[in-house]
From TrEMBL:
Domain Copper amine oxidase-like N-terminal: 37-141
Pfam families reported for this sequence: Cu_amine_oxidN1
Keywords for this protein: Signal
Signal peptide residues on this chain, from the entry's feature table: 1-24
Superkingdom of the organism of origin: Bacteria
SUPFAM superfamilies in the record: Copper amine oxidase, domain N, NTF2-like
Organism of provenance: Paenibacillus rhizovicinus
Record's protein name: Copper amine oxidase N-terminal domain-containing protein
Amino acid sequence: MKKITALLLSAMLLLLAFSGLASAATGKPPITVWAGDQKVAFDAPPMITNGTTYVEFKALFNVLGFRVAYDAKSKTITGTSASVTLTLNVASGAATVNGQASAKSVQLIVQEGRTLVPLRFIGESTGMLVSWDSAAQTVKISAKGPTAADIKELQAYLARMDAYDTASDLEGTLSLIAPGSPFYAAVKAQGEAKEGDPVVRTTSKLMDIPTFTSSSAVIIVSQHSAKESGGFYLDNDCVLKIELVRGPNKQWLLSGLELQKMEYVNTDEATSHEADVPADDKAAILAVVDQQTKTSNDEDLDGYKATIDPNVPGLDQTMAATKQTMDTYDLKYTNEVVRIVDYTATEAVVYVVQTVEKVNGPAFQNFRLSIASTYRKTADGKWLDAGEGKLLKVEPLSAV
């Protein structure tokens, strides 16, 4: 037995030596993987088996932005991103992409306690391009660019969103938003348009597509919104960054939204006239505006908070920021113009031009601001700030 073991050991040593010489002779470098411009670092080196490149799944999932979970009982790996959920069963090779079973099983390799997955399958399942450079032993994972058909589809999505928005079609608008996103709940909470609400026509134009895969996209959109009829509204031009994901029926759904630029275009026209307001309501509304100015000058945080609807989202954060300003500076607020520019029995818009000047505190840039703020009448007849102020203009004054 000892002789047989010695012979086997000698054979293995010869084989390893020969493999090393063969590798040196070919001069092939180790396999490297790049995701975009980032080189992926693996605890276990990538390997090729039967023409397929395998890599450690945790490092790959992390660089692709996946959250990773492992169910030891079912031996199932789950990777979840904003747009894709992959499951891989280590024992059976069964795989799913967004809940849909893969047409064929996917072989996984367990080596020294680490699980390796087929790189191309993972990359392409997430809508990425996977390329192999045999000479350089390099795999590159990159985002796919949109085709002409993809661009047309995105433009059609924006056209549907504009049509629903212009028609104040709440259900239609919600059908274009991912149900799990915070925007779905926010839009739903706004409810149906009310009588007297402005009718606004929105026109969106696709400007750029920074990121695109078959399952997700980031688009830059310019948007013009103009009132056609109804109550108070400020026409505006804006630039939006919109994140989209594919829904269950492959339809694009909004999952994220970021306002990058906003410019109001009819402020002079919209704020130049005085609304017809009953004397009692006018006095009550202007009294709230005066109280806000006075409590700001007196640094009376509780008094200022009392002028705001307690149901305003983010009120506590606003109050915390206001307190920090009061603790840092002694400022003087002076109203130059106060004008009620729109009024209904329960809602009013007040246009205010106000200067803000430092009395004491660190270096500060004095400024003049123009703002249109909405005030609403509560069930008990009290007017409160609705927390929907629109900043129209900021002009710097002398620095002190």
